[in-house]
Amino acid sequence: MSSIPLAISTTEKPTRYRWFLVALAFLAIITNYMDRANLSIALPYMKADLNLSSSEAGFILGAFFWTYALFQIPAGMLVDRFGAKVVLGVAVVWWSAFTMATSLVQTGAGLLGLRLMLGVGEAGAFPAATKFVERWFPRSERGTATGIYDSGARGGTLIALPLCTAIIGAWGWQTSFIVTGLIGIIWVIVWKFAATEYPSQSKNVNQAEVEHILDGTKDERISTVRIRWGALLKTRQIWAMALGLACQSYVIYFFITWYPTYLVNERGFSLLQLGFFGVLPGIAGLIGSFVGGWASDKIANSGYGVSVGRKVCIVAGMVLGASIGLAGFAAQAWLALALLSLAFFGVSAATSSMLALPADMSPSGSKSIVGTIAGFQNSIANFAGIASPVVIGYLKDQTGSFAPGLLSASAVALLGCLIYVFMLGPIKPDVFTHAIEDRTK
After folding, report:
1. Residue 2 lies in a domain
2. Which of 81, 88, 274, 303 has the fewest beta carbons closer than 10 A?
3. Boundaries of domain holding 319
4. Does residue 162 belong to any structural domain of this protein?
5. What is the model's pTM?
């Protein structure tokens, strides 16, 4: 095991470079979600060209999540092995390339294949971001940092709506995939020169900031553990985290799959109205991600502890998220949009705490398995991403309305509350210690 001892504390003011890097992580997640949302925005205009039914379109929208879910665990293990900087950089190059390739698609089968490959690359994003937050932020700031990068998910959807609709209106849907893919390539160039794996490696970080980040712990860099999968899979908490996040995924992926089609087909929005008013839930979600992360840290650091801080924000957020079911029965389009915005705010606020749990509950330093835990949590959760667009698309075909699908999302959100209240248990860093084996022994 390699260990770097802490230097004697100085009186210099800590730099704040960690916040710049988490802003870059925020931008990476923005590109991630722009590339996901691009298809859902372009789909109403691609369906005629590719001759797709609503069920086929829902099948293709959900196909992304097959590989996205399956590759979460391998991606998380790669993050623990090679680090957040390398894995995140490679992942962005991968998904940007397949986004640009979508501009060339001519058949539904071709589109299906490209979406599967897109899911492979995007699987590395959240495990890498979770690992980055663990290494660059003390426990007292991880909720806020997680809220910042996770708000990129909402920011990506928010930016994609006006950007992609403008591009589609001016130059066609093919150009929108080229532009969003190029944005990711530009990001990778900046990341390569700005980021380091550890704070102590960066020329932009002084010793005072390093000490603040480590918060009295050692800077241990080499993983010395092997995961005992049998023990891990028998742990109640890992399944609570995964199933709870699955409930979140079922709700939130309506907004990155069927949401534009819902506004156009069911609420009669024009392309201009979609680009102008359709961003409102995205704005609410962007605010919700930050507020949820900040609030969970604030509660935790006010003497109530991490368990109370995270769970209060998760449960309150998911209760608000359940308002999505009411939108399908709203008489006016503006009321439906307001309810969808409230739901997106709530579920986004909950997500910041959900994504902080792997770092909260993993051992630190050389025994950290944050990437693997995050990958497992995300893998199981994103099977809901497969189910959500298919179920909602099927219910739409059977009933002629999105209302039953939205009602199903409301019920799933409430189920998520019960999982976090009754199944998760205390949030503490030794929960998974029994599931790791020290390879140095």
Report:
1. no
2. 303
3. 15-201+212-438
4. yes
5. 0.81
How many domains is the chain partitioned into structurally? 1
Contact 348, 154 (CB under 8 A): yes
> 51: exposed, middle or buried (C-beta count within 10 Å: 0-12, 13-18, 19+)?
exposed
CB 254 within 8 A of CB 388: yes
Question: 231: burial class by Cβ within 10 Å (0-12, 13-18, 19+)?
Answer: middle
What's the CA gap between 340 and 328, in Å, rounded? 9
* Domain-embedded: residue 7: no
Task: Please compute, for residue 21, the number of CA atoms within 13 A of its CA located in the half-sphere on the CB side.
Answer: 29
| CA atoms of 46 and 264, how far apart (whole Å) | 14
Q: What pairs with residue 4 in β-bridges?
A: 219
- Residue 70 CB-half CA count within 13 A: 11
Q: Tell me, yes or no, whether 22 lies in a domain.
A: yes
| Per-residue pLDDT tens over the stretch 104-163 | 887 888 889 999 999 999 999 999 999 999 889 988 899 999 999 998 887 887 788 788
Give 247: exposed, middle or buried? Use CB within 10 Å, 0-12, 13-18, 19+.
buried
Of the candidates 5, 365, 370, 369, the residue with the CA atom closest to the CA atom of residue 220: 365
Dihedral of the alpha carbons of 119, 18, 349, 92, in degrees to the nearest 10:
-10
C-alpha 236/C-alpha 251 separation (Å) is 23
CATH code of 424's domain: 1.20.1250.20
- In this prediction, residue 221 has a pLDDT band, given cuts at 50, 70 and 90, of low
- Provide the 3-class DSSP secondary structure of residue 219: strand
Is the separation of the CB atoms in 382 and 63 below 8 Å?
A: no
